[in-house]
């Protein structure tokens, strides 16, 4: 069995945010290059316009008012109005485009992430709480929307204004400009020092939060068991503990983050003081005019504005980088079972199945099946029997290539299943699983999952074959009865009937029934087997069942055990053999 | 208003801490004004006036005020985050307890995704409300008011005219935005919940998806959910776009007022140039709050939508209520169902059920799918309340018995196998957390799970995935059985728990049940005659009614449903035996 992660442990992060991740993030952004550039141009215009406001006020003060030019004042007011309109337009433009870009980027990202998830093997889902996968697809992706739109634009804009301001400062006075920038390396040094612990703190928070989500999701799904076992108090205590861990991780991360603004403010205040001190001395020696100092200082404040904003942007980048890492990590998860590069389409098969020297184990060392050989002719019904855990389900899982073999090969109609596309291979099968799963939706939709283009009549036809029709029509809303996830009010037997109807509707060439009838009452089962038998005609099928009464009619019964087939033959032959099957059968039928 | 009161009540216990932080926040937001004044002194007295001596002290004061300010700021932000987190944690805990206390009925109707959204994204909005929104409202509001008062004394009547023009305009847009956007945020919420549901079902059903090669279909489904989510955001954005740019750019009107009106006033000598300059210097105090207002109102609306949803969850009460005078005693295992009915016409409903069970008896329920077998079990643990009739437990009405004691005395090995992603040992000990390792192993042996557990690489410390992924159906069933056995209940219920087991294993389990549970009441739901034939009473149900009732031999005489099932399962074998005899 694979190593399993639980709510109580943080997931190891296999990769950290590196160049290839940034590269990948870039490809998502480049798609919206046009929108970014347009927004930047519009913002540049409006920023320049807004920056001219102080200048206009200056003109009013210095020229218009002293000369009592009322007309001039109105003109300036008019210009301000134009600037305001430009600015309103620019704000709207930015809101529209950045919202569009941000949500489109996460749309693309989620689409790819989700599509990748579909390709991952069972083991990926089996080895971690589902809540942890869920937050990646929903919450983490959502939280990136702002960073991938406004975050980037803001960063660029702040960068631009920073350069403009520094340029002005040096134009005014090189010496003072140089002095006032002394604090800058200090801040950079500080931020770099802080960066790694800051990022770790956010990572730790996102781990704790993911644990919390996992526990919560599992608690909701398992609430019936919890109530039946009166475990509410104990679970609440565990939840409080995890919740407290999450809270502490958050506060810790915030405490680190909150250091940035005070530091940059103190440094900027310090450089202002230094400028005043030196500037005052220079003025006294008449090396400098008062106007220059006032100008430089007003620019220093403007200079630290963008720096502060950038440190805020940086904060959100750090937070989101942890999420992005988790998302990209999932997208890099190996797809274990892949089409070969030259894989062909599997044509519609007749159903001859051959296992040739098949050896398989979930672990390298621990084989479940070893050197398994058998051939099934088209149209035969094969029953797989054996003790719990003997590997019956494994045999059918290998057939539809849910796992790769350690050695040997499996052929259908003489074609090695490893050589064809997975999609075309699995399309051949109708699969009815041990664990029936209902999607939230109507019963009609749940059955139609087997064949999406089936008409209502075809759905009902399939339900009739498996004797599900009767109980469905007795429900208040019939086929339109809404079932919640995991079936809700339907009994396990009813869920099995629905999921059997689903398999029927698919009209497959090879049918696999894995404990399909375990929860169905005998009366229904009699009818059901009737229906199945009609459908089995001309189709190869594999049936796994514990109730031997259900498989007596099989063409061949294979008893699986000791990593291979112990005995095989028809019901009568095996009884006559008085071997393992005979023992099983006797145990079940003796009173 | 109700929502606001709900939010404010959450502050209980943190009020002093919280309001102190807010008050400090307002105070330090005025510090830049002091700095400006000090700078004015430097420029006027030191640089222009040449009084070099006071420069250093002023700089020292300037610097220390700033240090004081950032230190206070740090303290405030810490406190706000602390309170926000505490509040979030409190509701989260309360919400969690609430969820665990709700009836089966609630979970039949509610999707996990919806509950998850409430407990994560919605809660986060509440945290945001306390850690950020209120603080910003207080700070920006005070600055704004201060500026208003100050500017109106300088500007006089003309300023009030300006405010009369701007304020209604501002209020109109702000209200339009806040009220309109709430509905759209609701839609975003819905779409997010759908996104959750689609993703979650897909993850849970990954086997089904692969078996039916529905990857493309699932991708399309996700695409649609994603697209709707995106569109919902676009809809919010369209409304925001209509008002927010005006709200954030209204500031320029003040500059225009300053240039044109104040300029004319200065020219006419009704205002000094100094006042105008000061007025100009204070515009930021108006513009800051105004440009923030849009997004703050936005967040508030969003938060209200979330708070409503959380309130709804917290105020949902379970229908099944504990009687205040409940009997707190472990039950013995005597049950009387007197004329019990539950549910209407729907599947799994039962009608006029009547039977008595004495301590130590073994009772079997047999019948077609959906005939009400599991319903009776659920009624017995009071997961639902009866619609008509009475259930007596040890002669007392079930409603008078302490719920925890009742459920604690009954162990159900469920039909729907659910395992938690913990170790096997922890899963077995789920109902009895103080169990020793010996107890666990003993229970596992009784359920014939010990052998396969020991064969696993990590034995009892093997962590099983959610829903026991990686284990076979039979293995999972044996674990749930061990879990029920370990609880050492007065009443054991096996709800089709052996369906995936082979005959030999089942036989072994039957024997161990006879040893461990000979004096306990045992209910068995099964499709197999072999599992039920030795029971003291066999009750055959059909469409919610008892159709046959008696012992194995009696029922065989009846030639009814039970007889048919028996013939189906054994007929063939018996006839073979007979043939062999010839």
Walk me through the structure:
The complex is a heterodimer of chains A (591) and B (582). In chain A, the strands form 3 sheets. Chain A has a 6-stranded mixed sheet, sandwiched between helices. A 4-stranded antiparallel sheet of chain A has the order 2-1-4-5, with helices on one face. In chain A, strands 7-8 form a two-stranded antiparallel ribbon. Chain A has helices at 19-30, 33-64, 70-119, 122-126, 130-143, 147-172, 174-180, 183-221, 223-228, 232-257, 260-284, 290-332, 392-399, 422-426, 443-448, 456-465, 469-474, 492-505, 522-536, 571-577, 580-589, and strands at 353-360, 369-376, 381-386, 407-412, 415-416, 429-432, 441-442, 482-483, 510-514, 540-544, 556-561, 564-569. The radius of gyration of chain A is 35 Å and the shape is elongated. Chain A is built from 21 helices and 12 strands. The relative contact order of chain A is 0.08. The mean pLDDT of chain A is 84. Chain A has a domain at 19-331: Up-down Bundle (ABC transporter transmembrane region fold). In chain A, strand 4 (407-412) and strand 5 form a beta hairpin. Helices cover 65% and strands 9% of the residues of chain B. Chain B contains 21 helices and 10 strands. Chain B has a 6-stranded mixed sheet with strand order 6-7-8-3-9-10, with helices on both faces. The N and C termini of chain B lie far apart (89 Å). In chain B, helix 2 (15-28) runs antiparallel to helix 4 and helix 3 (31-48) runs antiparallel to helix 4. The longest helix of chain B has 48 residues, at 157-204. Chains A and B meet through helix 2, helix 3, helix 4, helix 5 and helix 8 of A and helix 3, helix 4, helix 5, helix 6 and helix 7 of B.
